[in-house]
């Protein structure tokens, strides 16, 4: 039997999710010039003029979660407590709380160059959840449910609350090229088109819920305005939703040498530059779910009574929809019962990457998630980051520093050993004994070919270039 949709149960489930092991945009590797199959997710134009001729991803994992409600004390944290929230403390005193989780499994994917052009074929499975606007009194409801003594008989209000979750698979095709050369500078443009297969979608938008808990079995509602929608993943197969998505990005790169006639990997490239500036729009699109699903846009301004709500039960998702409607007296307003859409986590992103000196770089980036005010769909988390890195062909080390949602500091560390990547953007609990409000890890197992097969390694530096048989000059060797 499924229990009724009560807030204490909702919050416990939420915290169990957001305190699980979880990186959002893999900041430690996002600025790399030798990992195009990883950087394409943040800006598809970065696959152009990459120092990797071919980059093949075998398997990758990207996990991120963060909330500002529950935490584990940094001084007492151990991995034995990761799978439980019984030791969690609550950050009381805030007006609003939020939580965000992003899990992405990268399947077989490949990026490769053809002179000034670059291509990528991408596969992944993604699960994202986003909760925003939980009111401050939620910390009173967690231990006592709706029967919190301080709130029984009081008129309370939930306003501008958003709860969304989306799970889907995607297959993407990326293309990028050099669109303009100007002196030492080049302009790179890249696009990604993605076919989306939706598995699960759930959304709740509460514009205003004004209510009173009369006693242990009586909930009275005065105003209930908003929208909800969810599909039934147990019916209709694994993927009951389909859609299209896409990314677009542009990069301006100031190289150290003349760019007129320059073609990467033709058959060699130096890849050296003074700085790069890039902009991108990510995850444009939506998923359209077919039935069975349940959706309701409601605007109830007359009071309703839910008697014996603590004893209400539902045997399935259809019964849950009926339970909510019957007790809140909801009426479909727009008559589009056959249409349930979930928006992708669209975001704007920008970066600046500066070459301090040979092998040392500073990568600064910011991503802004597009708010979902009147639509159902996950809102991507926003952040500001700066990533100093030391990068060579076979090894790369970076130390990302970031402000999650513009106010929560995070410090991380990332390593690339040839084609193996492991990193985290949130290790403050380990380095600085900070309280743990979330966790983050990403890793990738790849195979990378850094040079075109016709680009030969130079062993010495002869004053006069050697010549091939037939009198043609030797293929120039890369400076990197």
Explain this structure.
There is one protein chain. The N and C termini lie far apart (64 Å). With 480 residues, the protein is mainly β. The strands form two sheets. It has a 21-stranded antiparallel β-sheet that branches. It has one domain. It has helices spanning 7-18, 27-30, 36-39, 138-144, 317-328, 428-431; strands at residues 54-67, 70-71, 89-90, 96-106, 109-114, 117-135, 155-182, 185-215, 218-231, 241-255, 273-289, 293-300, 304-307, 340-343, 347-357, 360-369, 383-391, 395-398, 401-404, 408-411, 413-417, 420-424, 438-449. The relative contact order is 0.18. Helix 1 (7-18) crosses helix 4.
The stretches of 5 or more residues where confidence is low (pLDDT under 50) are 1-23, 332-336, 459-474
- Number of DSSP helical runs: 6
Mean pLDDT: 80
Number of domains: 1
From the alpha carbons, calculate the radius of gyration and give it in angstroms. Answer: 26 Å
Helix/strand/pairing class, anyone? mainly beta
Helix content: under 10%
Overall form: elongated
Share of residues in strands: over 45%
Q: How is the biggest beta sheet arranged?
A: 21 strands, antiparallel
Number of strands: 23
SSE order: HHHEEEEEEHEEEEEEEHEEEEEEEEEHE
Give the N-terminus to C-terminus distance in angstroms: 64 Å
Summarize the structure.
With 480 residues, the protein is mostly beta strands. The chain has one domain (7-343, 436-449). The chain is 9% helix and 50% strand.
């Amino acid at each position: 039997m499924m229990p009724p949709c009560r807030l204490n149960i909702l919050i416990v489930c939420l915290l169990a999710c957001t305190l699980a092991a979880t990186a959002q945009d893999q900041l430690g590797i996002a600025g790399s010039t030798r990992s195009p199959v990883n950087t394409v997710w943040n800006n598809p134009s970065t696959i152009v003029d990459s120092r990797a001729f071919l980059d093949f991803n075998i398997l990758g994992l990207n996990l991120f979660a963060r909330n500002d409600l529950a935490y584990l004390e940094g001084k007492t944290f151990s991995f034995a407590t990761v799978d439980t929230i019984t030791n969690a403390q609550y950050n009381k005193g805030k007006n609003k709380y939020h939580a965000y989780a992003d899990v992405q499994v990268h399947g077989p994917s490949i990026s490769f160059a053809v002179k000034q052009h670059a291509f990528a074929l991408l596969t992944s499975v993604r699960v994202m959840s986003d909760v925003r606007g939980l009111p401050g009194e939620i910390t009173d409801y967690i231990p006592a449910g709706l029967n919190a003594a301080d709130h029984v008989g009081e008129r309370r209000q939930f306003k501008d609350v958003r709860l969304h979750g989306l799970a889907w698979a995607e297959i993407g095709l990326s293309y990028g090229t050099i669109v303009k050369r100007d002196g030492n500078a080049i302009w790179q443009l890249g696009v990604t088109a993605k076919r989306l297969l939706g598995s699960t979608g759930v959304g709740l938008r509460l514009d205003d819920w004004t209510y009173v808990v009369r006693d242990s079995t009586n909930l009275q509602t005065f105003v209930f305005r908003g929208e909800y929608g969810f599909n039934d993943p147990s019916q209709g197969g694994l993927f009951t939703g389909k859609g299209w998505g896409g990314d677009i990005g542009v990069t301006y790169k100031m190289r150290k040498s003349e760019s007129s006639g320059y073609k990467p990997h033709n058959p060699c490239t130096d890849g050296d530059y003074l700085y790069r500036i890039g902009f991108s729009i990510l995850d444009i699109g939506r998923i359209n779910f077919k039935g069975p699903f349940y959706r309701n846009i409601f605007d109830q301004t007359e009071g309703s009574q839910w008697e014996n709500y603590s004893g209400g039960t539902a045997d399935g998702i259809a019964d849950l929809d009926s339970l909510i409607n019957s007790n809140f007296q909801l009426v479909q307003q727009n008559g589009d019962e056959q249409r349930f859409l979930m928006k992708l986590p669209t975001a704007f992103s920008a970066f600046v990457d500066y070459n301090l000196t040979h092998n040392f770089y500073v990568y600064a980036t910011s991503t802004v998630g597009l708010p979902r005010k009147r639509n159902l769909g996950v809102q991507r988390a926003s952040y500001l980051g700066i990533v100093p890195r030391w990068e060579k062909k076979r090894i790369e080390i970076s130390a990302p520093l970031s402000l999650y949602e513009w106010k929560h500091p995070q410090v991380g560390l990332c390593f690339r050993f040839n084609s193996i990547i492991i990193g985290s953007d949130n290790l403050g609990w380990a380095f600085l004994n900070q309280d743990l409000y979330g966790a983050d890890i990403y890793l990738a197992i790849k195979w990378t070919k850094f040079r075109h097969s016709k680009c030969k390694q130079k062993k010495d530096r002869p004053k006069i270039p050697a010549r091939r048989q037939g009198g043609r000059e030797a293929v120039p060797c890369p400076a990197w």
